[in-house]
Design brief:
The chain has about 160 residues and is an alpha/beta fold. Helices cover about 45% and strands about 15% of the residues. The radius of gyration is 15 Å and the shape is globular.
Length: about 160
């Protein structure tokens, strides 16, 4: 059983609940990183960053992060070293992002995508496998090298 994490701010809160329940029924072990209640003043980094850290640490295999548009969730998740997150709205990108880019955090907008399409996209993401092709490993090594660069101080 794959252990996955899910997180959302107020913009994705209701969709998160629907998705988490559907994923549990489908046999996934779902860890909920919040929000635990609808709060229109909450901030997506407070939920998405702990989810992304859990993915990077191997505590969950993959993550699903939601906010209103999905953009903020994607930005926040990608700030965590070792995480490869993307905003996804189509089936091809949902599986191709894993197959070619070893994507491990799926981001979407709770105000953009309905629950039926969201579940279809997430299922494509969760059932995909990284190809491990040499060209993809080479590209990922270049991306990972960016995480090792020291911050540059600009005068």
């Amino acid at each position: 059983m794959m252990r996955i994490g899910i997180a959302a701010d107020h913009g994705g809160f209701s969709l998160k609940g629907e998705l988490a329940e559907s994923l549990r029924r489908a046999g996934y072990d779902v860890a909920d990183f919040g929000a635990d209640r609808l709060d229109p003043t909450d901030d997506y980094p407070d939920f998405v960053v702990p989810l992304a850290r859990a993915v990077a640490a191997g505590e969950v295999k993959r993550g699903v992060a939601l906010c209103g548009s999905g953009v903020g969730a994607s930005v926040a998740a990608n700030k965590v070293p070792g995480v490869r997150a993307a905003l996804i709205h189509d089936v091809f990108s949902a599986h191709q992002g894993v197959e070619d880019d070893d994507m491990d955090v799926f981001c979407l907008g709770g105000k953009v995508i309905g629950s039926a399409l969201a579940l279809e996209l997430i299922e494509a993401f969760l059932t995909a496998h990284f190809s491990g092709a040499l060209r993809h490993r080479r590209r990922l090594a270049k991306v990972q090298a960016l995480e090792l660069e020291l911050p540059k101080i600009v005068p």
